[in-house]
Amino acid sequence: MKKKVFLLVFSLFCAGIVNAAILNVPSEYPSIQTGIDSASVGDTVLVQPGTYIENINYNGKNITVASLFLTTQDTSYISQTLIDGDSLGAVVTFVNGENSTAVLKGFSITRGLDYTGGGVNCLNSSPSLSHLKIFNNMAKNGAGVSAVFSDPTFQEIKVYDNTALEYGGGIYLAFSESHIEHA
To answer: Which residues, listed in sequence order, are joined to residue 116 by a DSSP beta bridge?
Structure first.
C-alpha cells in the first residue's frame, strides 16, 4: 500500500514538472510582461538579451523570469539583458503574496522611479532574487530594493548607484527578514 501511495505522489509530482512551460521573450511574447501575463504557476519566462523598456509585475504568480543566464550560467547575459523602467515606476513589482518560487534571475535593472522600491518593490511577498545588477534607480525609500512586510532572498546581487531621498539607497527593509548571500 505504501508503495502505491508513493508511486501516486511521485507521478503527480512529475506531471507537475512536465506541465511547466517555457515562454520565450521576444520570439513568442513581445515583452516580459506579456510573458508573465500568459504564464501559469511553475512556468519560466525566458528572456533573450536586449533592452526591455517596461515595468513588470508578477501579479501573484509564482513563476521564474530569467535571462539566458538561467540556462547557460554565463554571467555576460546579466549585463546584456536589461530591464529599463523609463522612470515610470518600480521596474519589478512583487505585491500580491508571491513566495520563494517567484524567481527573478540574471538581469540588469535600471531607471526605476517610485515612492518605494525604484528597482524592485516587494510588499507582503517573499521572492527569490538572484544574479542581478540593480543600479541608477530612485525612490523615497529603497531606491534599489524595498521590502516591506516581506522576506525576499538575495543571492549574488549587486546594488549600486541608486538614490534614496530618505532611507535605503541600496536596500530598504521594514518589518521584513531577508537572507542575503554574496551581495
So the answer is: 141
Q: Which long-range contacts (CB under 8 A, 24 or more apart) does 45-50 make?
A: 46/22, 46/70, 46/71, 47/81, 47/107, 48/24, 48/81, 49/77, 49/80, 49/81, 50/26, 50/80, 50/81, 50/82
pLDDT digits (tens, 9 = 90+) for 121-147: 999 999 999 999 999 999 999 999 999
Contact 120, 146 (CB under 8 A): yes
CB neighbour class for 60 (10 Å; exposed up to 12, middle 13-18, buried from 19): middle
Question: What is the rounded CA–CA span in Å between residue 159 and residue 132?
Answer: 8
One-letter amino acid at 21 equals: A
Phi, psi of 14 (to 5 degrees): -65, -40
Q: How many CA atoms lie within 13 A of 1 on its CB side?
A: 0
Q: Which three cell numbers stand for residue 72?
A: 547557460
CB 171 within 8 A of CB 179: no
The pTM of the full predicted model, rounded to 2 decimals, is 0.88
Contact 54, 33 (CB under 8 A): yes
Q: Give pLDDT tens digits for 32-45.
A: 999 999 999 999 99
Nearest to 38 by CA among 46, 29, 49: 29
